[in-house]
DNA sequence: TTTCCTGAATTTTTT
DNA sequence: ATTCAGGAAA
């Protein structure tokens, strides 16, 4: 049962508005998720709305999962039939059912950025475009933008008439789409575009979904782009029960096509819209909030908003400048260790936020050194690693024969002696017959000029056929294992026997785990479903609560999260705001976007905010000298506690042993007393025992002296050849048996 | 056909 | 600094 007493007046107002368009302007930390969940509960429990008729769209799968969980708790029953998901998954679900109306197969594949680039490369070759003048990335960017704005290749072509360069780009767009269709593939943007196309060309489909989704809610509305707006406004046209929640000050995805006008002009598009402002912040201290307000006040053209809080004043914002990035990272790791050691906080209470992923490296190094458990969000996506992409390509080939890209990726992996020359002949044959690449391979014997290469192709084709046949009575795990065994992929990696190949094998194991998890969790597990899930995960989705680690991530990833202690690192002009924004054609606008990003960062903090920067920093192998970020100057100075730069005495090359030991012990103790421990699963088994030789990322080789079983994790004592005896948590240390 | 080497480009942020 | 692509040699 929902209890409206727990909400403030504005929140109640938003919850109680049931019919007609509703815009909720929700400042940072004003409880918008709470309002959304209560509103859903209210619709179901009080207004008799069928949960089946509710669609809630969030930005990430993680947010969707959390919302479902929270709704589950307060809704009497039926919450499982509410459709809660991201824009992209929603569209995929619709397209899997109806995309055949647009001439695609319903088992289409989804191309990631790398796949897109490969396709574009082929397109450029075909059109004989000079890759110096027309860079693939640039072309893809332009096309992506066109799609964000729902501009079709033909419209683009019309627009481009008369401009030679634009016409070339338009041709590339046309050709690119053709290529995708031939492969029965969609890129990320297509998911939205094709769904809207579907709605426009098939009134019966649209009507079905309009009737189904009578109540639509959209979170993070400030970050929607034009197609996304088209999608939801088309769906909502019938019943007009559209509720959007957002904060124009947190719009940070312009580069991805987000159209801030969607939120600013909502009342123009829906003149009868009710507008509710949530201005009370429940998250941060007075000081943090004032700092955020001070910064964002420098932006023009915002919606009028005054964020306030009843929370206490809190600590001043700590600001500190260091000589270089090293010292900055060392300071942060030191502070975190200190706080945890004192028992003031746990690791999971901290987040380190930065502008670009590359900044994570220094922190990682220092954290490893200080034995601080951490998790880096983002960076190289797990699913874009070579070995994972290879296996995925096999799976895609088995699942969707039309995806020529996947086939071409793996036809010679592992080596089968099939090279470019052969591939070109097969491709030419496929093109002339208008069949897919794989179909051409099946007829390899008929292809003129192939000679004995055809004999090399046959076993591969045979293998895929075999897999397809046994697909029905194999689990996902068996299937992947079969691929690894029958192709000799795993064998090759084992024989290679380097650190790198070992890491790859580990990644593959991890991948199998994910497949198993999928199979256990999904309602109707199948190969296409798995591939789809893999294609649509965001980095942030893998972050779980109750994992006691410091989180490191970009400011973009941090949107929607909160932490008691936040470190905002690298506040330097040129890094944040980025050099790109300062040097842009229209710096004002770009810097305003960076400022919003800064606002997002500051408002993540609940109790304490520390801002750091470095005088000089290595960028692309060159040392750069940067000034303190302009954003720091925008924080009212009375809120700032500036610390002077502490000159560092030359560091001993080694952390004193007992310190790190005590740290580990201390942390261990706090964990043991944590009642949450019972929820946490300990690493099931260690693959090394006492006496084994192991290696550690930072400390190198060593011998296991002792393994103690703790409540939450194993504690392992290792004698390292170069660093002496250290004690560490097994799940964190990631020791590898040598 | 593969491997090894050199030169060039790359880094903003992501579903 | 590191990765990646293209070209030459094996």
TrEMBL record:
One of its GO terms (molecular function) is hydrolase activity. Pfam families: PcrA_UvrD_tudor, UvrD-helicase, UvrD_C. Its EC number is 5.6.2.4. PROSITE patterns: UVRD_HELICASE_ATP_BIND, UVRD_HELICASE_CTER. ATP binds at residues 26-33. It catalyses: Couples ATP hydrolysis with the unwinding of duplex DNA by translocating in the 3'-5' direction; ATP + H2O = ADP + phosphate + H(+). Residues 286-560 form the UvrD-like helicase C-terminal domain. It is an enzyme of class 5 (isomerase). Residues 5-285 form the UvrD-like helicase ATP-binding domain. Belongs to the helicase family. UvrD subfamily. This is ATP-dependent DNA helicase. It comes from Hominiventricola aquisgranensis. The gene is pcrA.
């Amino acid at each position: 049962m929902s209890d409206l007493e727990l909400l403030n007046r504005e929140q109640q107002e938003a919850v109680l508005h049931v019919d007609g368009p509703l815009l909720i302007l929700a400042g940072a930390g004003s409880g918008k998720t709470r309002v959304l969940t209560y509103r859903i509960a209210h619709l179901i429990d009080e207004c008799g709305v069928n949960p089946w008729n509710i669609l809630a769209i969030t930005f990430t799968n993680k947010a969707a999962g959390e919302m479902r969980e929270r709704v589950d708790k307060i809704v009497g029953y039926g919450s499982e039939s509410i459709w809660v998901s991201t824009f992209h998954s929603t569209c995929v679900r619709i397209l899997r059912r109806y995309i055949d109306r647009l001439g695609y197969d319903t088992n289409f594949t989804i191309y990631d950025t790398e796949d897109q680039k490969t396709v574009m490369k082929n397109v450029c070759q075909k059109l004989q475009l000079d890759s110096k003048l027309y860079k693939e990335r640039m072309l893809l960017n332009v096309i992506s933008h066109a799609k964000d704005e729902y501009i079709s290749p033909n419209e683009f072509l019309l627009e481009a008439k008369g401009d030679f360069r634009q016409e070339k780009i338009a041709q590339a767009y046309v050709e690119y789409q053709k290529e995708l269709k031939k492969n029965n593939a969609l890129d990320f943007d297509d998911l939205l575009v094709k769904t809207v196309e579907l709605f426009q060309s098939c009134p019966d489909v649209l009507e079905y979904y309009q009737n189904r989704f009578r109540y639509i809610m959209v979170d993070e509305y400030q970050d929607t782009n034009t197609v996304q707006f088209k999608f939801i406004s088309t769906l909502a046209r019938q019943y007009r029960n559209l509720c959007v929640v957002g904060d124009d000050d947190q719009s940070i995805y312009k580069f991805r096509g987000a159209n801030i006008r969607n939120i600013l002009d909502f009342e123009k598009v829906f003149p009868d819209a009710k507008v509710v402002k949530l201005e009370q912040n429940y998250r941060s201290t007075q000081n943090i909030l004032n700092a955020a307000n001070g910064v964002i006040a420098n932006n023009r053209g915002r919606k009028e908003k005054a964020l306030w809080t009843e929370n206490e004043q809190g600590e001043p914002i700590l600001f500190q400048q260091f000589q270089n990035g090293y010292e900055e990272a060392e300071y942060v790791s030191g502070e975190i260790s200190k706080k945890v050691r004192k028992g003031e906080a746990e690791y999971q209470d901290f987040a380190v936020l930065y502008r670009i992923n590359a900044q994570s490296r220094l922190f990682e190094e220092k954290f490893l050194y200080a034995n601080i458990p951490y998790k880096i969000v983002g960076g190289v996506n797990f699913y874009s690693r070579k070995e994972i992409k290879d296996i995925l390509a096999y799976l895609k080939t088995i699942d969707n024969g039309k995806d020529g890209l996947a086939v071409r990726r793996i036809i010679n992996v592992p080596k089968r002696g099939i090279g470019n020359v052969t591939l070109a002949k097969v491709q030419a044959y496929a093109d002339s017959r208008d069949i897919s690449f794989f179909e051409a391979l099946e007829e390899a014997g008929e292809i003129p000029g192939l000679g004995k290469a055809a004999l090399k192709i046959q076993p591969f084709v045979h293998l895929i056929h075999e897999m397809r046949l046994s697909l029905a009575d194999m689990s996902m795990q068996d299937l992947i294992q079969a691929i690894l065994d029958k192709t000799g992929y795993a064998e090759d990696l084992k024989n290679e026997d380097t650190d790198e190949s070992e890491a790859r094998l580990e990644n593959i194991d991890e991948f199998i785990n994910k497949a198993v998890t999928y199979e256990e969790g999904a309602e109707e597990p199948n190969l296409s479903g798995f591939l789809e899930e893999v294609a649509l995960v965001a980095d942030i989705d893998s972050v779980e609560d109750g994992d006691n680690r410091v989180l490191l991530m970009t400011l973009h990833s941090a949107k929607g999260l909160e932490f008691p202690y936040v470190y905002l690192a690298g506040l330097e002009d040129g890094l944040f705001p980025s050099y790109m924004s300062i040097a842009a054609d229209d710096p004002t606008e770009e810097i305003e976007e960076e400022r919003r990003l800064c606002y997002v960062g500051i408002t993540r903090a609940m109790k304490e905010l520390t801002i750091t920067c470095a005088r000089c920093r290595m960028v692309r192998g060159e040392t750069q000298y940067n000034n303190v970020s302009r954003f720091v100057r925008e924080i009212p100075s009375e809120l700032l506690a500036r610390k002077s730069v502490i000159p560092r005495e030359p560091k001993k090359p080694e952390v004193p042993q007992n310190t790190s030991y005590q740290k580990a012990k201390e942390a261990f103790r706090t964990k043991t007393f944590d009642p949450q421990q019972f929820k946490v699963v300990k690493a099931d088994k260690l693959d090394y025992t006492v006496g084994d030789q192991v290696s550690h990322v930072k400390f190198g080789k060593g011998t296991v002296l002792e393994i103690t079983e703790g409540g939450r994790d194993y504690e392992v004592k290792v004698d390292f050849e170069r660093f002496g005896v250290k004690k560490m948590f097994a799940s964190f240390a990631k020791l590898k048996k040598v």
